Amino acid sequence: MKNPTFYTKDRIDLERLKYAVFDNLIEGVQVIDFNWRYFYVNKSITLQGFSSKEELLSNTMMEKYPGIEKTEMFKSLQKCMDERVPSEVISEFDFPDGLKGWFELSIQPVPEGILVLSSDITKLKRADIELKKKLDEKNELLAQIISQKKQLEEFCQIISHNLRAPLSNLLLIGEMLAENHSLDDKYKYFEMQMPIIKSLQSIFEELVQATQIKMDATIKKKKIDLENITNKSIKKIRKKRSINEVNISSDFEDVKNIYYSKKYIKNILVNLISNAIKFSSPERIPTIHIKSYKKDNWICIDIEDNGLGIDLKRYKSDIFKLHKTFHNHPEAKGFGLFLTKIQVESLGGEVFVKSNVNKGSIFTIKLYKINHEE
Questions:
Q1: Prediction pTM value
Q2: In what residue span(s) does the Histidine kinase domain sit (predicted)?
Q3: pLDDT value of residue 282
Q4: Is residue 101 within 8 Å of residue 124, measured between CB atoms?
């Protein structure tokens, strides 16, 4: 760095006169000496820096803006001051009162130190940020519409697949009833109708429940303690089945709290933990581990077990479909995973599974993307 030159007050005033050409320039101009003291400032700089000329000229940059030496902008100033090499940068600046500004800087070495020509691009930058925000919102809305269209198509397939067979059977039995006049046969056909009607009622109730989730626009989100809600979910499971011989552990160090629907997260945890217990292996003590973490700006939860596992080569496309089961178990209905998927997706998330037969499964729930407030 060049050795500082010391001037008398009169000599300083004389040296400043050569910069008077910049006094009324619309861009800000400031000359900083080798001791980081303001040597010259024009009117535009006082407006950009919310300070008077006297305030600036009686201070160093560090005195006027404490902490400025830790900023990226200062690194550019320092480099020009030390290496005497011009540079141009766009920099964000935090003012002491909390306001933010963006400036386009042209930094030049001069005999006194450095000259900084600055253009205030704060309005332009804010407009750019607002435009990007609007584009992100538009893209998010478009993604939501595409997702809803896909869900609607899937839902239509579900209705078609699950209602066609029982309705066809009822029509067939109805035709048999109409054609047969024997009271004994009619009674037999009436009896045949009952389990089909009960099945239809069950399917109807499940579809209504799924539809209500998809159509619910008033889902309330609140701050939820994951450890607390998990313990409550396990307590709910314990009321229905004995789980004394199940090892359940958890790790919520990375994400202790989430902003979510309390009802949904409890249902999701109950469904997945219950499945892990239900389809445990008789060859080993059931072990379940629940972990929360952040990945790619998403809040995620893993539920890992050492149970029977699922043959993904065979069943991957059916995992979350209605009434699809993968093990011979009397309690398997094929509704829990279907409901879990709908609840997760209704709040903009996703659910995945990794599994190996007779080794266990990991269900991963991507709950939601972290926003700036969180």
A1: 0.53
A2: 158-371
A3: 87
A4: no
